[in-house]
Amino acid sequence: MSELSPLTIETVKATIPVLREYGDTITAKMYDILFENYPETKSMFSSAPDEQPKVLAGAVSAYAMNIDNLDALSDAVGKMASTHVRTSVKPEHYPMVGESLLAAMTEVLGDAATPEILDSWGEAFFFLGDILIAKEKELYAQT
């Protein structure tokens, strides 16, 4: 697995104040976009709590705060991977979620969602996605 670029790490960390202010709005919008564009994903969230957008916003913020120390997130990654296996998330779902997340950032943040920010968050999302996919592959093999 490759490393995140220094620019991505710097840019993602710089967005932490924005995530604190708009994270819940971004993730709620992300789910709207995801379910509209990929209705087949809705069933994966049928048992998710009503506060799922808030939970995801917290996870995104935690990732941003620890993007240069991912070992701090190993327990959270394990829990996410277990949940993803339980709800049948597959590698092909990650591009759908990533696209929806970036679209939500663009919609909520408007002009503040610069190409640099979107490129960095795209790199960061898919980097974390690769970590989750690898962990989920291990878990699927065990079941």
UniProtKB/TrEMBL annotation:
E.C. no: 1.14.12.17
Signal peptide: none
EC class name: oxidoreductase
Domain of life, per lineage: Bacteria
One matching Pfam family: Globin
GO annotation, biological process: cellular response to nitrosative stress; nitric oxide catabolic process
Alphabetized GO MF terms: FAD binding; heme binding; metal ion binding; nitric oxide dioxygenase NAD(P)H activity; oxygen binding; oxygen carrier activity
InterPro entries to which the protein is assigned, alphabetical: Globin, Globin-like_sf, Globin/Proto
Family per record: Belongs to the globin family.
Protein's recorded name: Flavohemoprotein (Hemoglobin-like protein) (Flavohemoglobin) (Nitric oxide dioxygenase) (EC)
UniProt source species: uncultured Thiotrichaceae bacterium
